[in-house]
Amino acid sequence: LILTIDDKIQKKAYDLLGNNKGSIVLMDPKTGEIYAMVSNPTFSPVNLRTDWKNIVESEESYLLNRSTMGLYAPGSIFKVITATAALENSHVSKNYNCQGSVTIEGYTLRDYGNTSHGNINLEEALAKSCNVSFAKMGVEIGQSKLKETAEKYMLNKDIPFDLQTAKSRILNEKVDKAGLGATAIGQGTTLVTPLNMAMVASAIANNGYMVHPTLVKRVETPEGLIVKESEVSTLSQVTTSGVTDELRDMMEKVVTQGTGKSARIRNVQVAGKTGTAENETDKTHAWFIGFAPSNDPKLAIAVILENNGGTGGSVAAPIARDLIIDALNTLE
Q1: What is the dihedral of CA 242, 197, 293, 207, to 10 degrees?
Q2: Is 223 helix (H, G, I), strand (E, B) or coil?
Q3: Is the predicted pLDDT of residue 62 greater than 70, yes or no?
Q4: How far is CA 93 from the centre of its chain?
């Protein structure tokens, strides 16, 4: 088996994840080749026999491949999907007024730190990750359209891959307007895999075309004869290049002016989105998804730090930045 994984980049990804639980997926948005896919905590197959009891009984879930099987609340990284649906529908407002919170059918959604953003357009709302704007947006978009857009990004769908993958989940039951507002900001009942969110970033980077993710580049005989070789194929046409051009500009602003400033790289334009996702524990998941260089994307990434308690901008974005720098230098 000849894998798409680059050993140097893979090791760097493990080093960057450190002692954090979570996952990093780094891929080529145009070919679907996976350069790094790490899941932590992990185990050493060398000590499998002696450590087996601890591995299977531990609450750390050593055997769970978090990259493909871990299901997490996405938090604000989901806003790129909501923004896609908004851009595709001319009737949806692109200008909002944020007073720090919004109450929808008796349920109050708040911005981080109760920040009031005032009058704000869609680009500014994504850069500042304004919950109020996106919650209102979700209600305007409606359940049917938001679900349809998410499914084009392969949520609720089986992702064909060389490893077993879990299916991301969204809006499989009727929700009220409050539930729709929560869904639009990546909360509610939505759960996603890191692989799926790296593919979301890839689709935006690749002008709306989501390619088939690949881990096995080819299969060879011991004599070097190629038995099977992967080919680039489109898995889903998510949206138009016009919409992805707008999303790309907005995601660049996230990194240059918004919550993703820690992902900035000198002389390389990065497009991204941060996320800080509430879950069943009292510690949030920290997310970052993005791609670079944004004018000619060679890399797309998803980083999640599970139950880290930090924000996506403060802890996940710097990891993405450092891995992108390393990978761009390695792949030259």
Answers
A1: -20
A2: coil
A3: no
A4: 25
Tokens of 295: 């004018």
- The neighbour count for residue 112, using CB atoms within 10 Å, is 15
Per-residue tokens: 181: 């507002």
pTM: 0.93
Whether cis (ω within 30° of 0) applies to the bond prior to 194 is no
Q: Is the dihedral of CA 280, 37, 198, 234 positive or negative?
A: negative
Residue 118: is its pLDDT beyond 70? yes
Average pLDDT in the chain? 92
Tell the residue number behind the tokens 């909360």, with chain if given.
187
Between CA 152 and CA 302 the distance in angstroms is 18
* Per-residue pLDDT, 222: 86
Residue type for 294, please?
S
Would you call 25 helix, strand, or coil by DSSP?
strand
**Cα–Cα distance for residue pair 217/16, rounded to 1 Å:** 25
Can you name the residues that pair with 260 across neighbouring β-strands? none
Catalytic residues: 76
Residue 175 has a CB neighbour count (10 Å cut-off) of: 18
